[in-house]
Amino acid sequence: MTDIAYEGWEPVIGLEIHVQLSTASKLFSPAPNRFGDEPNLNISAVCTGQPGALPVLNKEAVRKAVLFGLAVGARIAPLSKFDRKSYFYPDSPRNFQITQYDQPLLLGGVVAADVGEGTKHFCIHRAHLEDDAGMLKHFPAFGGVDYNRAGIPLLEIVSEPCMHSPKEAAAYAMAVRAILQYIGASDCNMEEGSLRIDVNVSVRPKGKEGLNDKIEIKNMSSFANMELALEAEIRRQIRAYALRPHDKDPIDKGTYRFDPGKKETVRMRTKEEAADYRYFPEPDLPPLHLSGAFIEEVRRSLPELPHQRYERYVNRLGLTPYNASLLINDKPLSDYFEEGLKHCAHPTHLCNWITVEFVGRLKETGKRLPEMGIPARHIAKLVSLIESGAITGKIAKNVADEMLLAPGLDPEEIVRDNSAYQPLSDSKEIGAVVDAVLIENPDSIAALQSGKTRAFDFLVGQVMKRTQGKASPSVVNRLLKERLKRD
Amino acid sequence: MDTALAYKERFVRGEMKATEIVEKQLSFIKEHDPKIGAFLSLLEERALKKAQLLDAKRRENKPLGKLAGIPIAIKDNMHIRGEITTCGSRFLTNYQAPFDATVVRLMEEEDALLIGKTNLDEFAMGSSTENSAFHPTKNPWNLMCSPGGSSGGSAAAVAARFCPLALGSDTGGSIRQPAAFCGLVGFKPTYGRVSRFGLVAFGSSLDQIGPLAANVKDAALLLEVMGQHCDKDSTSLPLPPANYLAELQGSLQGKKIGVPWSFLSSLRDPVASNFKEALGLLKELGLSLIDVDIPILKNSIAVYYILSTAEASTNLARFDGIRYGLRSQKAQTLSEIYDLSRDEGFGDEVKNRILLGTFVLSSGYKEAFYKKGQQARTLFIEEFRSAFTLCDLIALPTAPSAAFELGTFHTPLEMYLQDIFTTPANLAGLPAVSLLSGFSSDKKPLGLQLLGPQLHDAEVLRVASAFEEALGLCSASPSLEAKP
């Protein structure tokens, strides 16, 4: 498919995902790691770069990074170290960042992701810890810096250049996000910036080995924008090679950003302007030694991972791969489903009611089902009511509407308190309606006898219409068949 | 000269109130410091307040700390919460420290009377205290001469009897060389023994805080208080506190002193003859002398000035005029804030070292300079380790000469060569002491340096203490009445 789309060219994409680890305090200081507070409230001498202040490594951040490493099967380095990366910018309180340059904490690793036409495996190159920068704030008369974000622990996850379409890139990024959420390492909120993505992309003639020059697009604001940006950039590069095949730098190497309005990438700086970061080992932090015992202890705390949950959904619960992906990529919803499962013997129906009926009803509002205050067991109960024949699917939809209007109301009570929702399962009552329908539709009976089975469904529909959907479909079926056989 | 322990005794016995001690020292300082320039600021109010508390404590028979009643000066690159820390720089003229250095907290917990902050070469970069942005400090033994540096203010303060103890910091000899020039004991502990939290960093992997004192006992006392594990400094060694004062006692029999003679071929008098006399005295104490070969020592200046400036160039990057410190009034744009603030705030030597450090880390040069420096540093550690399999301590002169006159050196490189004998201990993280070993014919103090293996701080002090006692000169002090 990509072949046709890119006229014989193959995109090569690598992602750098920066994720803020959800720790109580910052990577090198006791200041709180919290989003959304007044500017410069969560700061300390360390994260504002005061002279005389020294960094002390946050063990919880190391633990969460190791947990991620174990989740993707990375090699956990028994010895890693920190380095200073020098650059002057007001958001950088020491004018150097503390990062891991040549001995990162995590090496390698594999992420499985559903790319629509099956599961694909993507390779991680490395992942390391570093501290976040502050944020510049622009005011009419001056600029300010908010250091609340400065020093928040980041895990930078660098993939191999192993993705070949925007869709694959998005699938990989979503799979990484799901893993981070499952292990409780990060809330991965792109709007709040706790997950940020830079992409590296190049194109090469399909079938060619080796890599062409790449460019970098900084700071994607959403997965959808990332796909759009990649799409635009891939086409720009293919055009550039076509228009200027002999140029030394046809793709105008450098760092780009995406303009979502114009749907095109815009160059921010050229390759020549690249800074010399003058990396060298951070003398204030000794190398980080991790014992096998520590790593094993962390391993024991690994929860069920998204791809394991996916396998369980598809193989044991019988969900479709589409629904399974939909659930696992939305951890709160998947957890909600898990909660409902405890009270429900019909996983596929529960999944449909959650993902289609309830989530569908909320689509316009922007609200999220797990936050609505409807206990998952209530949806499970609704499904059980349908399965037991206590209510029809049609009535269940009305009950669902009411559950959303008054979250917390038990569906059983809703049904009990509304006579219109009482199902009609009395054979006599339904039988009378069936008789009336048969009398009024002799044509349908004739059609049925001449082999047109669709006429049967029509008759069922007529009965349901007359009973306002309250008649039990199984009873209607049974009675109709009995009557028709007699005739 | 009055020792710190003598001050404490007078206070504890009730011969002198703490307030009287503070008042007396402050008036003595006010009388004599104008011609010496040891202090950048006096902590008058703070010291008197603490003294009143101490007097009350004594009246009420409450337990008194190990440093009770002892006036102590602090090099002005360590933080006392709420006080100004200038680092001898125009850049930080108004910088109020937001927290206490760990050493300050530990000393105050032991009832020290912090009386003032002393002059230094800007950001501790220098060997003469002439690089202070405020004024040079003069050597109390000879007011034409430098007290050494960078802890020259602290050394001059103790030599002038302004206080019996002072804190210095030593990155490449900044405690030991001023101690030698001022006839004092100056001790650089094993790297990691004393917390660096609250010390404004110069070369983080080399910096170590230590005492300047009139004798070894006082130095041991202060080290005992300061040598504690600190969880705010990740390079602080996880060791229990040691009883350095008690460990000064003990036999020296069978101990061997190594002398790297091949490194000392260019020694000149008066240092050369004094060093030999000092070795003679060590022998008389029952120590044996052996020749040790440590070939890497000849590279100490080059390696030290590559690694220390590399670290300094990044440590000082934070002084950018954005958050604190000097911001140029002329700056209109962001890059002008950086360029002009740093240009106006830093002195020449600091700029030299930032440039040098930036250069040795730059792409294309890092391999040849910084990386090679790191490799050489490993050799320092290894060669010292193998030397210490043959001997217990190593003896060196502290400086190639006695105190030089102010204005002697006109190029940075000449000044850098002053550090030839002191930098090896920093590169290898070793404990090293400088102590008075005699005087030149023109009555300038000379210093002997003893280096020990890592963590052998007590042993270094024990030998130093025996030497000091045998020499019997530590009561010597300069007359402050002499006209410059």
**From the 3D coordinates, which CATH architecture of chain B would you assign?**
Alpha-Beta Complex
Look at the structure and give the mean pLDDT of chain B. Answer: 96
Oligomer: heterodimer
Shape of chain B: globular
Instruction: Classify the beta-strand content of chain A into a percent band.
Output: 15-25%
Residue share in helix of chain B: 25-40%
Tell me the β content of chain B: 5-15%
CATH superfamily of chain B: Amidase signature (AS) domain
User: How many structural units, i.e. domains of chain B?
Assistant: 1
Helix content of chain A: 25-40%
Number of strands of chain B: 11
Global Rg of chain B: 21 Å
Index terms:
heterodimer, A: 487 residues, alpha+beta, Arc Repressor Mutant, subunit A, 3 domains, ten-stranded mixed beta sheet, three-stranded antiparallel beta sheet, 16 helices, 39% helix, 19% strand, elongated, B: 484 residues, alpha/beta, Amidase signature (AS) enzymes, eleven-stranded mixed beta sheet, 11 strands, globular
Report on the architecture of this protein.
The complex is a heterodimer of chains A (about 475) and B (about 475). By secondary structure, chain A is α+β, with helices and mostly antiparallel strands. Chain A is built from 16 helices and 17 strands. Chain A folds into three domains: about 1-295, no CATH class; about 330-420, no CATH class; about 425-485, Orthogonal Bundle (Arc Repressor Mutant, subunit A). In chain A, about 40% of the residues lie in helices and about 20% in strands. In chain A, helix 10 (about 375-385) runs antiparallel to helix 11 (about 395-405) and helix 13 (about 425-440) packs across helix 16. The longest helix of chain A has 21 residues, at about 225-245. Chain B is of the alpha/beta class and about 475 residues long. Chain B has a single domain (about 1-485), classed as Amidase signature (AS) domain (Amidase signature (AS) enzymes, Alpha-Beta Complex), CATH 3.90.1300. Chain B has 15 helices and eleven strands. In chain B, helix 2 packs antiparallel against helix 3, helix 9 packs across helix 11 and helix 9 crosses helix 12 (about 365-385). The longest helix of chain B is centred in the C-terminal third of the chain and has 21 residues, at about 365-385. The chains are: A alpha+beta (about 475), B alpha/beta (about 475).
